[in-house]
Specification:
Blueprint (H helix, E strand, L loop, with lengths): L4 E4 L2 E3 L2 E3 L4 E2 L3 E2 L4 E3 L2 E4 L3 E4 L7 H12 L6 E3 L5 H4 L2 H7 L4 E4 L1 H9 L8 E3 L5 E3 L4 E6 L9 E5 L4 E3 L21 H17 L3 H12 L5 E3 L10 H12 L5 E9 L4 H15 L5 E5 L5 H10 E11 L2 E2 L1 H12 L5 E8 L6 H12 L3 E10 L8 H13 L3
The chain binds flavin mononucleotide and fe (ii) ion (FE2) (2 copies).
One fe (ii) ion binds next to helix 2.
């Protein structure tokens, strides 16, 4: 059965929701599911913007068929070749033999690599090229590395609709609601939007900045991303979030305390630090156990807050493996402009603090590590309370 929504008078959402997938890209947990958005324009000629993941292709085909209502499909515009959107290209080409594919040279190369038979049906475009489907005129804008090198966005200059590819997307299935004003985005979606952006596109902040600069010159009325809600109001609010994330600027003054603890002593010290900070007036404190918090959440919250305290046991003369993994991920995603505090623990050769400091100072860019640190020998003892106090003071002072 079809399940479609009208975006404008002649534009339909024909995508599908995925509820069964545990891990997006086989790495990021998506307990709220995800949507793969595709859009069908019914102009004098018909144009489909992107497809969906193979897992939801059946639903997608029903949707396209319903929205076409017996008309042929003339054009398939491919903004992004990652298989969560592109996997159903071949199926569309088989079912709609007159459809021709519009995309970039790089995208056509990828289509051949993935084994799609597009050779006789390609129309290659590059940045600045325009195309008319009748009443609607669109312009193509290359958006390299948002999120793959071949990515483009397509702007409908007639309606002000931006087909934004992975930009402005979010984890989470739509489940009937389509528009940002049909959900409480800040309450129910922002965390997943941040987690999506920071983990998927976070590394490419400068490329996102370049795209935002290009977008600044056009009058966008509606943003149609490939995942999550369609934006038709309050666009500036969400664009500002993207601007912040892609400049690696924190959203909030506050601190995430991430701890690694086997027997609970480091955890106890992390709690003591949290209490001390709150006591001194810093209320924006969150505490996360690295062992029970997926690293995609840690990354998203690292992008959100100005400060991070990392508390790690020493583990075979190294830092706790999951702390190392978190730091490696942070580096891979290009995180910058944050202040870190260090808490270390060890029973006979405490090494984790120095190792974490070295990683942050030498492997990453624009990171401050506070001089004050808290060292535990097995457990927090009375004689270390002054160090705890000094660390808390230093964290608060560095926020001013
Ligand atoms: C597998 C393993 C390896 C460890 N390696 C070290 C080490 O190299 N140096 C050290 O000082 N302590 C080492 N420890 C001890 C813990 O870091 C130490 O007992 C710590 O206080 C535990 O804190 P927790 O109560 O937060 O788990 C190791 C513990 C385990 C289980
Ligand atoms: Fe993608
Ligand atoms: Fe995607």
């Amino acid at each position: 059965m079809h399940c479609i929504r009208k975006v404008t008078d002649d534009l339909y959402w024909v995508g599908a929701n995925e509820h069964r997938l545990a891990l997006f890209e086989n790495i990021h947990p998506i307990p709220r599911g995800v949507s793969y958005n595709s859009y069908l324009l019914l102009d004098e000629q018909t144009a489909l913007f992107d497809t969906v993941d193979w897992a939801v292709c059946r639903q997608f085909l029903d949707n396209v068929e319903k929205a076409l209502n017996g008309r042929p499909l003339d054009w398939l515009v491919i903004n992004h070749m990652e298989p969560d959107h592109a996997a159903s290209i071949q199926e569309i080409l088989l079912r709609y033999p007159n459809a021709r594919v519009v995309s970039t040279e790089k995208a056509f190369m990828l289509m051949r690599q993935f084994g799609f038979g597009v050779d006789e049906r390609m129309e290659e475009v590059k940045s600045g090229d325009t195309k008319s489907f009748g009443r609607h005129q669109v312009v193509f804008v290359e958006a390299p590395m948002v999120h793959w090198p071949e990515a483009i966005v397509t702007f409908d200059t007639t309606s002000g609709v931006l087909f934004a590819a992975d930009a402005f997307g979010s984890f989470g299935a739509l489940d009937g609601r389509l528009f940002n004003d049909e959900v409480n985005f800040e309450r129910d979606w922002l965390d997943d939007a941040r987690r999506y952006f920071t983990n998927i596109v976070g590394k490419y902040g400068p490329h996102v900045q370049a795209l935002l600069k290009k977008a600044g010159g056009i009058d966008i009325k509606i943003i149609c991303p490939l995942h999550g809600p369609v934006w038709r109001s309050n666009l500036g609010w969400f664009i500002e979030k993207y601007d912040k994330w892609s400049r690696y600027e924190p959203e909030e003054k506050g601190i995430m305390i991430v701890y690694a603890s086997m027997y609970g002593n480091t955890e106890s010290a992390a709690c003591a630090l949290a209490s001390k900070l709150v006591e001194k007036g810093l209320l924006n404190v969150i505490l996360r156990d690295v062992s029970s918090t997926h690293v995609s959440h840690l990354i998203a919250e690292t992008f959100k807050y100005s400060h991070v305290a990392i508390a790690s046991v020493t583990y075979n003369l190294g830092m706790f493996p999951l702390i190392h993994n978190y730091l490696m991920d942070m580096k891979a995603l290009n995180l910058q402009k944050r202040t870190f505090a260090i808490v270390e623990n060890g029973s006979w050769a405490c090494k984790s603090g120095d190792l974490m400091r070295r990683f942050l100072e030498e492997e990453m860019r624009e990171i401050t590590v506070l001089d004050e640190k808290l060292t535990l020998n097995s457990a927090l003892s009375e004689d270390r309370l002054p160090d705890l106090d000094a660390l808390a003071k230093s964290i608060i002072a560095s926020m001013k």
